[in-house]
Amino acid sequence: MKNKKKLLLVSHCILNVRSKIQYAVEFETEEERNRKAFLKKVIEEDIQLMQLPCPEFLMYGGRRWGHSSEQFDNPFFRRQARKMLEDIVLQVKEYQNCAERVEVLGVVGINGSPSCGIGYTFSADWGGELSSQPNLEAYLKKGERKEAMGIFMQVLKEMLEEEGIILRMVPLTERTLEELEDEN
Q: Cβ neighbours of residue 59 under 8 Å, at least 6 residues apart?
């Protein structure tokens, strides 16, 4: 069909960076450069975007602290994630029913995010009252990169698979679109 469009599901902060945690200093990161290049290419190639909800913003607001994936790996967070994703999954299912009009390319996440990481997430065994830590700075530095998917993306993948939908999930990088097109 002549008017067939490509569609990508994207982490919320790809379209709205103000949903991310607040940093002490504003600076342009590699992620920000990749985000701008990705969006420019998406516009040039007329790819449609479906913005996923940001579970961290919806549950904790804009003044939240950073979290680790372990803090979200619990039945309560997972249940809320499922609720947030119900209509998204139904929309993907419907788009796949209209395959002559729409090609769902996949999902783009943000590596390092405890929610939306694809290849890796942030891991730290944090919990309890921060003020009770004798050396708070050392305690907070215990976090590290972990080769795993963020909890929100895990839930999305599970829900899609429950509907028989397998989508490629890739992180935002300088080669995001190429990675998706190589697979399709």
A: 77, 80
Amino acid found at 74: N
How is residue 73 written in tokens?
């790996």
Token pair for 132? 């009770």
- CA dist 168 and 178 (Å) reads 12
- Is residue 17 scored above 80 in pLDDT? yes
Each residue of 59-105: pLDDT tens digit? 999 888 888 899 999 999 999 999 999 999 999 999 999 999 999 99
CA angle 80/67/83 to nearest 5° reads 10
CA 83 to CA 106: how far, in whole Å? 20
Question: Which run of H or of E encompasses 106?
Answer: strand 102-109
Residue 83, CB half-sphere, CA atoms under 13 Å: how many?
Answer: 9
Contact present, 157 and 169 (Cβ < 8 Å):
yes
Q: What is the pTM of this model?
A: 0.91
Distance between CA atoms of residues 132 and 130, nearest Å: 5
Residue 162: Cβ-neighbour burial (10 angstroms; 0-12, 13-18, 19+):
exposed
Residue type for position 61: G
Alpha-carbon separation of residue 125 from 73, 140, 149, 150, 151 (angstroms): 11, 10, 17, 15, 15
